[in-house]
Every structure is written in structure tokens, then in C-alpha cells.
Amino acid sequence: MTHGPGEGRQARVAARRAVLFVAGSVFAFWIVASGSLRPADLAIGVVVALVLGSWSVRFLWSGKPPVVPGRLLRALPGHLLLLAGEVAMAAVHVARLVLDPRLPIRPRLVQCRTGLRSPAARTTFALSLTLTPGTLAVDADAGCFLVHCLDDDSARRLLDGALERRVARMFGEDLA
Length: 176
Fold this sequence. Notes:
Helices cover 64% and strands 11% of the residues. The protein is mainly alpha-helical. Strand 2 (135-141) and strand 3 (144-149) form a beta hairpin. Helix 3 (70-99) runs antiparallel to helix 6 and helix 4 (119-131) runs antiparallel to helix 6. 20% of the residues are buried.
């Protein structure tokens, strides 16, 4: 199959746009994370952003770049806000456990089966619960997560299913 001369050019232009989009996103994160607008920091940020942008477009999305549904983009800020609240409450709970030896620290491994089907939904679930102090996903296999919980309250929060339901709604999945 022969391609016209314009198709190769279109592909290169699309790849450059993708690199610039990823680099722009990385650079915006760099500015927020570094908290600095000094020229040297900005220059380093531009170089890092361009390298990561080029690398990700070439190796991570060598075919078509992933498409993020609008529903997911609309749900993400709410999920992140709720997750931040849960992280703050769990951090206070863990701090109380650590600072007061009379509180029951009962570490255990809990199996958590999930009805989430897509790899992206499962990954979001695992990362969200790992970000929450007191829980850590240590293994995952076909919809079953092995989670280290610091105490009974951490295990109850995991097993109540609220996080899984929120992730399912975000990805438009019905839980079985």
C-alpha cells in the first residue's frame, strides 16, 4: 500500500502536536511542583518536559494516543477532592495510632475482590487506596487485590466499597 507525500507530513505534525501537548502538561506540573519561576528552574523544566513529552509519545503512545472520555475528565476533579478528604482523615487516624500506643494497631492483609473490569479503573482503584494512609495494595490478580491494612478501621473503610463505587461511576462501569 502506497501513501501519499502529505500523509507522512500529517503524521509528523500530529506527533509534534502530541509532544507539545504532553510537554505543556508536564511543564505546568513542573511549575506547580517546583513553586519557582526563576529562569534557571524554568529552563530545566522546559528541557525535562520536552524530553518526557518526546519519550512518552514515542514509547508510551507509539500508535494512537489514549482517548480520555469526557465523562472521566468531568468526574476526575470530584474524585480527587473526595480522595484528598479521605487521605486527610486517614492521615489523622494513622497519626493517632502511631502517637498513642494504646490504640489498636492490628496490621493485616485483606483480600478485596472488585467488580471493576477495565485496567484503567482497576489501576485508579489501586492507586487511590494506596494513596490513603493505612492501606497499601501489595498485589493484584484478575480483579482481586491483596491490601495491607494498618488496623480494623482501615480494613472497614476498604471493604465498605465506597471507593470502588466511586471509581466505577467515574469509568461508567456497573459493579457485578
